[in-house]
Structures are given as structure tokens and as C-alpha cells.
TrEMBL record:
This is AP-1 complex subunit gamma. Its main location: membrane. InterPro entries: Adaptor_Complx_Large_Subunit (IPR050840), AP1_complex_gsu (IPR017107), ARM-like (IPR011989), ARM-type_fold (IPR016024), Clathrin/coatomer_adapt-like_N (IPR002553), Clathrin_a/b/g-adaptin_app_Ig (IPR008152), Clathrin_app_Ig-like_sf (IPR013041), GAE_dom (IPR008153). Keywords: Cytoplasmic vesicle, Golgi apparatus, Membrane, Protein transport, Transport. It comes from Sphaeramia orbicularis. The gene is ap1g2. Belongs to the adaptor complexes large subunit family. Residues 670-782 form the GAE domain. Transmembrane segments: none annotated. It is found in: Cytoplasmic vesicle membrane; Endomembrane system; Golgi apparatus.
Length: 782
């Protein structure tokens, strides 16, 4: 290829290259020829060679060796060379290179050139790559050109002034008077440049913003002329008169009317006119309407005008162009907090956008749908969101699930609180971290009642860990006893706290009396206040806690000790996977002939156990053991005499039998002071009673093991039915949790019963033990 080939032939040769290597070879040969010609003193084809070098630069190959040639060509008196030189300067030079300073004087000279085209080249180059130093040197020349009579030059000078203001903020004051005068021009190009320059000045200088607010009437008049003007071939775009200028004016009006009522009032009528008269069937019209909506929503506009703007966004949601739907939801998301009712009118359309195939539109629709959830529509919205959750993409599933959970707020099911408490008790290594986090959450917000209940429970149980302040997982924060009591008192006194939440807080306060040392008197005072509370449940708690402080103070530490790990073993309340341990039930005891058949109790009393026994969802039915001995079974006589037991326990004859299948229970009805509750497989449990007063008694349970193997993990648990809930039941700590073989030692546990109303009482006892690596669970009803 000859070094003097035209530009078109070089482009053809490069495009015909079949490999990258061949292309590089063509370019390297041409660049070598261009370098050689640049070194020649008299070269008539300099513009031709620089044009080829600029094409090489556009392909991504190095062309820095042509920078000085650009400087020389800018200084040339020929327009053809000057044009290519300025183009090369804009492409090859930037403000960080020293060569850019060499063209400052040439630009200054060309700004005063007699030809408007040479002036235009200098203005475009300065606006493209002018450095801060160049802008400071040439700013007076630009201000002079802004006042020129030539509209073509004024348009270019206005855009160049925008670049100067962005580079040197202090020079904005220099162009403010000229920018104000440009608004009286009739040329749309000059008006466009003037609006862009004023916008830049207002965004960067608050004083300029106040000064240009006086131009709002002028801008309104210009905008009205564009809206009501007829067809103009020079400015018409798809039936809209100069939409580019309209968009720029609306954007400036939005800046001028922001947080200014007077300016906003001056443009309200104009915005209503644009919103109603602009054609929304074309993309150009939608662009103008979108800027109108943004302006209406950002200024202090009238309420009716804001509703009109929201309705326009609602129409955008029905547009076939997904880009328009996307920007509509983006705008609605910003105003859903301030114009919630107006946005709610388009809830159906927004929910329908959840089915949009475009992932970005679907994500915005999900965010907006979650923001629209309120107390009045939570049922219908949750239904739609759950349907979406079942079929949404994986990348949105986590956001949808968490959004639904957050939208529900404090409205959670009743079993959520005990389930969460059960999970907390099982994670002993996280008790310190949990109580610290929940304490901070309690200080931040007490409106979420379920969370407040869990927080109060944890503070009552693990308040000593909170006061130590040595949690490794969180930042060390020193919490004092007064701080904790202040937080609980806030919950007790808050109008947002439900009676159940106050009960949690009062119990937590009472439990802290055994975990702190310096503020027990304050706790006693808090508890005594609620002894006369109008809420009966809260009053009863306070009265009973006051009794612990006075009459039963010696038992307060035992009563208020830390709760053991809560086990939930029923099928309907299992958290996590099964432990895999074998749970066995003891077979029925064979009753000897001559014994009286047990009295059958109502099914609701048999099954009305507290959750301590892990109640089933289905009611338990009386088993065959309750209706009499099975045919063929030997009968075991075990009569006991002992008379009535103060008539506290119902006056039933003593009969004992062990459970069979289907969750049957060991049932014990007794009237004697001492009875054998359970005796099978070497394990014996006896119960002895001692009268304390007319309404109270002490019951002692004694367990022994006559087998050849030790029994471990021996525990007793008790509960009373709801009909006996007023009965005071106090279990003292057992003497141990293991039964040695051959009866060498026994385990005893004392129960204090208080029955002031002297009602018939049934106490349900659960025995749990580990025998030869198997877990046994036995139930006793007394």
C-alpha cells in the first residue's frame, strides 16, 4: 500500500483484513508513513494524514505522536487544516497534557476571528477539553460572545459557558447577567443554551437560585408559547413543538419551584395545561409528560395537580413500553409516602406488573406493592404477594419473603412468641448475644408487641448476662440496673403495650429481683403499684409477686430461678428435626380381680393439660384401660385406706394403672396420705401428703430404682388443668436427677399445694428418665 493512499482506501484495506494480525500490520505500515510525512517541513497533505491518524485512534491504536501536529494545524490560517486540527485536539488532547496549554493562545485568537465558523471551532474545542486554567483565561471572551448579535455564536458560547461553570464555580457570577438576557431571544437554539446555563448556575449557587426565581414568569410564557403553538416544521417532533426545549424548561422550573411557594404558584396553571394537552400516545409526548410529573411532585403544587400527576404515572403503567412502566414505578416509589392515597388508586395495576416478564419491572413492582400494604388492604395484598412468592424468580424470592414478613409488622400468630422463646432457651451459647440485641431493640421501638414480649422474657431470664456487658459478639456497652428497669417501666407505662405485653414486663421486672442487688426496693415498689391495676390479670400477678416479697420471701429465689430448656415434643410443636431418640410408653399394668374399676373422668378433663405436657392438636380419647380391664388380663388388687384427704383432691378411690397405646395416661386417684403412684420395671414412685392448713398441703414424691442398672436424667414436671388454674402449685428443687441401682439412694421432690377455694383438683405429672440408653416418658394424673 502506498504511503499516500486516501483515507477511504486505508479504511477499505483495514476492513478487508482477515485476521487481527493482518489488521495490525496494515495500521503499523500506515502509521510509519504518517510519522515520516509529519517530519517533513513542507507537507501539503498534513490534514489528510491527521484525518487517517484520527481513524486509527478511533480503532483503539496509539496515536499520541499526532498531538503536536494538531497544535500546528490549529495555528494554520487555512480553514480545512484548522478544522481537522481542532478535531484532533478534541480527540487526542485533554486537560492533563501539557500540549493542551499550547493551543490556548490560538483559541483566544480564533474567538475573535471574523468567520463565525472559525469562532465555532474554538468554542467547541474549549467546551470539550478546556482545563481550569484555560477557562479562567478565556472566560471574558466567552462572556463577550454571549452578547454578540449572531445567534449561532451565542448558542455555542452559552454551551461553552456551561463547561466553564462546571470547571470553575466562581466564574458563574460572570455569566449570570448575560444568561438572563438570553431568555428574550426568539431562536430556540439560543433559548436552549440559555436554559441549560441558568440551570447549571442555580444548581451550584444558592444566591443565583434566588436571583433567577424572578425569571419564572418569562419561562412560563416561553413554555406556553411552545404548548399552544401550531405546527412548525423547523421544531416539530412527532407532533410536539420542540420537546427538547420543553424538557429543559420543565427541569429548570422544577429547580426554581422547589421549596418556594410563590414560584410554585406561578407555574401551577402551566403545568396543568401541559399535563392535559400533551399527547401521550407518542414517546416524545411521554417524555414531556414525565418531566411535567417530576416537576409537579417536586414543587409545592396543589393537591389536585399532584393527583393528576399520579394518574399520569398510572397511565404509564399501562403502556406497552416496559421502559415507561419502569420509570413510572420508580416515580411512584418516591411519592408513596407522601401521596399514599393517590397511589393506592392504582394498586391493581401495580400488582398486575408483578406478572411482567421483565425482571427489572417485576422487582420494582414488588417494592412498590410492599410499600402499598396497609391495615385496610393487608388481606388482599398478602394474598397477591403470596401468589407471587410461589412463582417468583429465585433472585426475588428472598426479597419477597422478607418484605412480606416486614409488612406484617407485629401482627404475628400467638404461638410465634413461645416458639421463639423455646428456640432461644435451646441456644445457651447465644443467650448473652440475644439479650443484648433484644435490649437494644426494646430501646429503639416498642410498637412491635411480639418482639417486646420476647425481649422482656429474655431480660427477665438473662438479665445478669446483660448487666455483665461482656458479650463478645457485640460492641461492649455498659448497661446499669437502672437502665434495664427504666426500659421495662417504659413498656409497662406505654399506651402501645397490650395487657399480655405488660404481663411479660412485670414478670421480667420481678425476675430481676433475684438477678440484681442494688434496686430490689425499686422492683418491690413497681410491683406493688400494679397490685391495684384495673386489669385483673396484671393485678393478680402483682398481688402474687407481692406475696413472694413478703410471706414467701424465703422461696422467692427458688420460684424465680432461671427456666430450664423448654422441650416441645408434640407433633404440632416440633422445631427442627427429631433427635432420633426412642420414646417408649409403658404397657398397661394388669389389674387383679377384685379391684374396683376406675371411675371414668370426662374426656375434656383428661385431655385439658397445660402445654407443659406438649399437648396434641387432636383431643385425646379415653382409653380402654379407663373402661375396665381387658378380657383375659389378670387383676391386681391394691386397696388403700386412708380416708378423705381434706377433700382437696376430689375424694376418689386409689387405683393405679399404666398407659397403653395411643397416648393413654397413668391415672392415680387417691384419698390416702401415702400411695404408690407407679411401680413397674423396677421403678417405684410414691406420694405422701402432709397437711399444712385448711387450704394448703405439702406433697412429697419419692422415687427409687430396684433394677441392676442406674437411671439418669430423671425429671418430674407438673401442670394443672385450666379449671384449676387458680390453684397455687409450687415445685421445689429435686434432691437429684439420677436413681442408683438396687435402691441405694432415692430422689425426693416436694410440692406445695394451695387451694383456697377448695375445688376438686387434678394435678398432671410427667416423668422422664433414661434407662439403658432409652428415653422413657410417663404421665401421671393425680
Amino acid at each position: 500500500m502506498s504511503p499516500s493512499v486516501p483515507l477511504q482506501e486505508m479504511i477499505r484495506a483495514i476492513r478487508s483484513a482477515r485476521t487481527q494480525c493482518e489488521e495490525r500490520g496494515v495500521i503499523q505500515r500506515e502509521c510509519a508513513a504518517i510519522r515520516a510525512q509529519f517530519r517533513q517541513a513542507d507537507n501539503g497533505g498534513r490534514s489528510h494524514n491527521l484525518a487517517k491518524l484520527l481513524y486509527v485512534h478511533m480503532l483503539g491504536y496509539p496515536a499520541h505522536f499526532g498531538q503536536m501536529e494538531c497544535v500546528r494545524m490549529i495555528a494554520s490560517p487555512r480553514y480545512s487544516e484548522k478544522r481537522v486540527g481542532y478535531l484532533g485536539a478534541m480527540m487526542l488532547l485533554d486537560e492533563k497534557q501539557d500540549a493542551s496549554l499550547l493551543i490556548t493562545n490560538s483559541i483566544k485568537n480564533d474567538l475573535s476571528h471574523s468567520s463565525q465558523y472559525v469562532q465555532s471551532l474554538a468554542l467547541c474545542t474549549l467546551a470539550c477539553m478546556g482545563s481550569a486554567e484555560m477557562c479562567r483565561d478565556l472566560a471574558p471572551e466567552i462572556d463577550r460572545l454571549l452578547r454578540a448579535s449572531n445567534s449561532y455564536i451565542k448558542k455555542k458560547a452559552a454551551l461553552c459557558a456551561v463547561h466553564i461553570v462546571r470547571k470553575v464555580h466562581d466564574l458563574g457570577e460572570l455569566f449570570a447577567p448575560a444568561a438572563r438576557s438570553l431568555l428574550s431571544e426568539k431562536n430556540h437554539g439560543v433559548l436552549h443554551g440559555a436554559v441549560v446555563l441558568i440551570t447549571e448556575l442555580c444548581e451550584r449557587n444558592p444566591e443565583a437560585l434566588e436571583r433567577f426565581r424572578k425569571t419564572v414568569p418569562d419561562l412560563v410564557q416561553i413554555m406556553k408559547g411552545l404548548v399552544i403553538s401550531g405546527y412548525s416544521p423547523e421544531h416539530d417532533v412527532a407532533g410536539i413543538s420542540d420537546p427538547f426545549l420543553q424538557v429543559r424548561i420543565l427541569r429548570l422550573l422544577r429547580i426554581l419551584g422547589h421549596n418556594n411557594e410563590a414560584a410554585s404558584d406561578a407555574m401551577n396553571d402551566l403545568l396543568a395545561q401541559v399535563a392535559t394537552n400533551t399527547d401521550s400516545t407518542k414517546t416524545v409526548g411521554n417524555a414531556v409528560l414525565y418531566e411535567t410529573v417530576l416537576t409537579v411532585l417536586d414543587i409545592k403544587s396543589e393537591s389536585g395537580l399532584r393527583v393528576l400527576a399520579v394518574n399520569i404515572l398510572g397511565r404509564f403503567l399501562l403502556n406497552n413500553d416496559r421502559n415507561i412502566r419502569y420509570i413510572a414505578m420508580m416515580s411512584l416509589q418516591k411519592i408513596v409516602g407522601t401521596d399514599h392515597i393517590a397511589v393506592q388508586r392504582h394498586r391493581g395495576t401495580i400488582v398486575d406488573c408483578l406478572k411482567d416478564p421483565d425482571a427489572s419491572v417485576k422487582r420494582r413492582a414488588l417494592e412498590l406493592s410492599l410499600a402499598l400494604v396497609s391495615a385496610s388492604n393487608i388481606r388482599s395484598m398478602m394474598k397477591e404477594l403470596l401468589i407471587f412468592l410461589s412463582s417468583c424468580p429465585l433472585e426475588l424470592r428472598a426479597q419477597a419473603a422478607s418484605g412480606i414478613f416486614n409488612a406484617a409488622g407485629g401482627d404475628v400468630r400467638d404461638e410465634t412468641v413461645p416458639n421463639l422463646i423455646q428456640l432461644i432457651t435451646t441456644a445457651s451459647e447465644l443467650h448473652c448475644y440475644t439479650v443484648h440485641k433484644l435490649y437494644r431493640a426494646l430501646l429503639t421501638d416498642i410498637s412491635q408487641q411480639s418482639l417486646v414480649q420476647v425481649a422482656c422474657w429474655c431480660i427477665g431470664e438473662y438479665g445478669d448476662l446483660l448487666l455483665k456487658g461482656d458479650c463478645q459478639e457485640t460492641e461492649p456497652v455498659q448497661v446499669t440496673e437502672n437502665d434495664v428497669l427504666d426500659a421495662l417501666e417504659t413498656v409497662l407505662q406505654s399506651h402501645m403495650s397490650s395487657p399480655a405485653t405488660r404481663g411479660f414486663a412485670l414478670t421480667a421486672t420481678m425476675k430481676l429481683s433475684t438477678r440484681i442487688t442494688d434496686n430490689v426496693d425499686r422492683i418491690r415498689s413497681i410491683v406493688s403499684i400494679y397490685g391495684s391495676c384495673i386489669d385483673v390479670e396484671l393485678q393478680q400477678r402483682a398481688v402474687e409477686y407481692n406475696a413472694l416479697f413478703k410471706k414467701y420471701d424465703h422461696m422467692r429465689a427458688a420460684v424465680l430461678e432461671r427456666m430450664p430448656v423448654i422441650e416441645r415434643n408434640s407433633p404440632g410443636h416440633t422445631n427442627g428435626e427429631s433427635s432420633g431418640e426412642l420414646v417408649k410408653e409403658v404397657q398397661p399394668v394388669k389389674v387383679k380381680e377384685g379391684d374396683a374399676a376406675p371411675t371414668q373422668q370426662p374426656a375434656n378433663q383428661v385431655c385439658d393439660l397445660l402445654d407443659l405436657l406438649g399437648g396434641s392438636e387432636e383431643p385425646l380419647k379415653p382409653t380402654s384401660a379407663q373402661s375396665g380391664p381387658a378380657p383375659g388380663q389378670p387383676i391386681n388388687t391394691s386397696n388403700s385406706s386412708g380416708g378423705d384427704l381434706l377433700d382437696l383432691l376430689g375424694g376418689l378411690e386409689p387405683v393405679a394403672f399404666t398407659p397403653g397405646r395411643n397416648n393413654s395416661m397413668v391415672c392415680v386417684f387417691f384419698t390416702a396420705p401415702t400411695v404408690t403412684v407407679y411401680e413397674k420395671n423396677g421403678v417405684t414412685l410414691t406420694l405422701s401428703c402432709e397437711k399444712q392448713s385448711d387450704s394448703s398441703m405439702t406433697v412429697t414424691l419419692t422415687a427409687s430404682n430396684s433394677t441392676d442398672s442406674d437411671i439418669s436424667s430423671f425429671t418430674l414436671q407438673a401442670a394443672v388443668p385450666k379449671v384449676c388454674i387458680r390453684t397455687f402449685l409450687l415445685w421445689l428443687a429435686p434432691s437429684g436427677d439420677s436413681l442408683p441401682a438396687h435402691g441405694t439412694a432415692k430422689v425426693t421432690q416436694t410440692v406445695v399445694l394451695n387451694n383456697p377455694n377448695k375445688v376438686g383438683m387434678h394435678t398432671h405429672v410427667k416423668l422422664a428418665l433414661t434407662f439403658k440408653a432409652h428415653l422413657y416418658s410417663l404421665y401421671v394424673r393425680k
